[in-house]
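Escalation from tier 1.

The customer reports that the assembly of two entities below gives different structure tokens on two consecutive runs. Tier 1 could not reproduce it. I'm attaching the input and our single run for tier 2 to review.
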Amino acid sequence: MTRQELTDLIKRKGSFLCVGLDSDITKIPKHLLDHEDPVFEFNKQIIDATIDYAVAYKPNTAFYESRGAKGWISLEKTNDYLNSFGKEIFTIADAKRGDIGNTSSQYAMAFFDHMDFDAITVAPYMGEDSVKPFLNYEGKWVVLLALTSNDGSNDFQTLQPQRSKFWQSMGMDKKLGKPLYEIVMRKSFEWASQYNLMFVVGATRARKLEHIRTIVPYHYLLIPGVGAQGGSLREVAKYGLTKQCGLLVNSSRNIIFASTGEDFAKRAGESAFSMQKEMKALLMRYRVH
Amino acid sequence: MTRQELTDLIKRKGSFLCVGLDSDITKIPKHLLDHEDPVFEFNKQIIDATIDYAVAYKPNTAFYESRGAKGWISLEKTNDYLNSFGKEIFTIADAKRGDIGNTSSQYAMAFFDHMDFDAITVAPYMGEDSVKPFLNYEGKWVVLLALTSNDGSNDFQTLQPQRSKFWQSMGMDKKLGKPLYEIVMRKSFEWASQYNLMFVVGATRARKLEHIRTIVPYHYLLIPGVGAQGGSLREVAKYGLTKQCGLLVNSSRNIIFASTGEDFAKRAGESAFSMQKEMKALLMRYRVH
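Tier 1 run:
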């Protein structure tokens, strides 16, 4: 899907909601366990109930892999079902992959050839040749980890080993004073553009979005951490929205596990609708239309 | 497997060879394609031919995922077959996973519960809570990416943003002057010890091992990049061996694709034997016995 198509989709639906399919088989409603593929059945009903309010879906591969090959079958069926909606939705494999070039090429085959996701999340630690193989696909996207929503993001991502003002006053290279997540973002400009690259920025860091928008005024950002992890949608919109939206805000548990009873799909739909209403108001307030 | 068991295994076999099962279905001998599961059949014959010379096997998950659920079945069967050798071998899932805590827990389930590998490679970018769930398993290991063998490792891993001598003379924290891979290693000491943690250090950086051994004098290191990627076994041994060995040196393509004819297993065995002979001599030379 192209950037323009994604932006048009967001405007049409009045939503920048991404539904995270972290479909833990131990947490889905018990009455589904009689189905041949309970996780796929769960996903299908969640998708049907939320598709009017969401622009993107993001299966988290870990929750499928934990069930082995069977889980991968659920994932493949989910991908097929998502693709049956064509350009009505944007699909992200939340896989956090990244390895040396010939290996990343195989991961790209897994998610872009064997399956057909629009995007994949990629970890940047191994650098350029670990990311580039994912960029060789027309119309496909890399969503690069920048500043994540977890506590551990402070261990390395926000390290800023140098006092930048001091060095600037000494005439030293300013770049060296940036935190790692910013160095990652700036470096990635050499590999890709806002037309095939997004960044993960956690909603728990909403205030940091103001600074991040000075680095990436145009790129789409994928924002996890709203809801269960504590981030605020209003703060995210305030500091992160651009004139072309530029945001996909993910919600997983708050939607897919809104209820664990037989009404799970209905309640998921209500939860997604409630977020979409808030998003529509925010899109109007910040004049994204 | 415990550290002592691994060290004993290495001494008994006179080898610190890890065979990388990067079993690309487009590269395996054509006559195997008639088998019901060609990749598993390939792996089985490779394992049988090399088991006297290798102490570890490392399937690279990308080469299985690229074939979807079918590939995962090959991976699961390979894991079962490896486990049939019990403590004769150490098994590593080369998966480069890492995500927020509840997600890393699912990956740990995939590789330690659903399958039963001894170790998994983990990417450190997301910090402590992305690594810890893998450490909750008795007798299981995390192999943390530190300094990898690819060109992209220079993009972030070797960044050393501060002039350490200057800051040291100013009485500032020395730690800040270290390159990222060293910060990663030192930080991980807070989470784990040499009894459940190893590091990936590329053989293309053999000279760096001298410095790395000042940081981690006791930890096992998993060294990829010997052979096809250009690293030298002799250099690796010279700078990396400890009194208890402390090294697992991986070779993939040079062994598993030594021949693509019907003699592939025989040739793989010869290639592994040739490396084992060299390793045995190095273990004697550096008095690891």
